[in-house]
Amino acid sequence: MNEKFIFYILIVLTVITNLKYTVAGSIITKVFDIEDAYWTPEKMRDAIPLTTNESKNNKPNYRTKRDQLPVKESNITSYNPYVPYGKLFFHNTGDGKNYFCTASVIRTENGNIGLTAAHCIYNGNGSWSSNMVFCPGYENGQCPVAIPVKGGSVEVVDGHYYYDYGMIKFNYDQ
Question: Where is the signal peptide (predicted)?
Answer without folding.
Answer: none
